Amino acid sequence: MNPIQRRQALVRTASLLAAAAAAAPLAAMAQPASAGKSAGLAPVKLALIESLSGPFANTGEAVYRNLMWAIERVNARGGVTTAQGKRLLQLERFDNKGQTEESLLMLRSAIDSGAHFVLQGNSSSVAAALIDALNKHNEREPQRRVLFLNYSAVDPILTNELCSFWHFRFDAHADMRMTALMQLVAEDKQLQRMYLIGQDYSFGQAVLREARRQLGERRPDIAIAGEELHPIGRIKDFLPYAAKIKASGAQAVLTGNWGNDLTLLVKAAREAGFDGRFYTFYGNALGAPAAMGEAGIGKVVAVADWLPNTPTPESAEFYRAFRTRFPRPQDDYVHMRMQLMIEALAQAIDRARSDDALAVARQLERADVTLAGQRGTMRAADHQFQQPLVVGVMDRQGAPGVPFDVEGSGYGFRVVRQISASDAAMATTCQMKRPG
């Protein structure tokens, strides 16, 4: 399917789902977070639309902790400034159960609750549907416009063919992450056979497509030993997949899998006796290091916007502060980009002196924020956040460069490559339609 056909399919699906959601009864809204309630001016409402139940509930709850911590930091310094005065931020939870249709119902509930800002990320298919629905809503009801802040949905099409004035992405998209990973793949001269596996939806398909393209350009000598897409969130036993990987003779696996689909895949590979490398987008958390254990040392590679062992004093202090706020090992899942996203939103509201979506969007287009030594800026042309990337390799806690482990596993990630924001940047094909 070419890019035009992909775009048409995504838009067609999103349009049908948006129409269905508009006709359906409103779903009940989840209980709001206590943070952000104020006895003075009404808070600025932020709506988190995410999987808070089902197979990916752990990812949704991890996102919620990150956002809550970021919002607590903003509120601790007095909140944001509007023309009416200081206002706190308030985060409300909307469980989409991992379903696109449910996400659109939750979007309507969020808008009806008074939220001007919607936050989502753990599915590019959901993100595409939300973008389409918000484009239509904001044109139809300009007095109730809403912005979409995306922290993890990384299908490149979302800031290219599907780019929208109302959508801002704060994660590096899949092609940017792949380019970073390929720096290490290109240097591994012993690697001759690689297996590609991913979740069967827009993001997983984009990862495998870009992997093939970049391997062809940078390491045409590497044979693709196998290529597989599997249903997202439905596979309980990955041993058959792991057996195929081992039988293929692959020396490494490249995957964009996340959540339980990654943890179970890694665990199955270990049980099947596969001893090759895993080049991953998300192998640094949510159970993957513990699942791999000793077998993952030196073999699990992850790309991220930031890692706890990023070698700066500011980074170490930032990570310790998160662990103090959330001391349980299973709650250890912190992402700098989510913190920078909330900082950018607060900065934009302060500059606009309003929580009006249009006024804030115009300021968010020129966001420039720094936290714990990490700086990010928003590119107005496509609303793709520009920030450094790092690549890490799994090792035991206490090894050189690994003062911190993750999730109490005893394993952490040593940073082996730091990529500047300018080097991580990629061209865009976005032709953004802006409000008059």
UniProtKB/TrEMBL annotation:
Record key words, sorted: Signal
Signal peptide: 1-30
Positions of the Leucine-binding protein domain: 43-398
Database matches in InterPro entries: BCAA_transport, Leu-bd, Peripla_BP_I, TAT_signal
Record's keyword annotation contains Signal: yes
Coiled-coil features, chain-numbered ranges: none
UniProt record similarity statement: Belongs to the leucine-binding protein family.
Protein name: Branched-chain amino acid ABC transporter substrate-binding protein
Organism for this UniProt entry: Ottowia oryzae
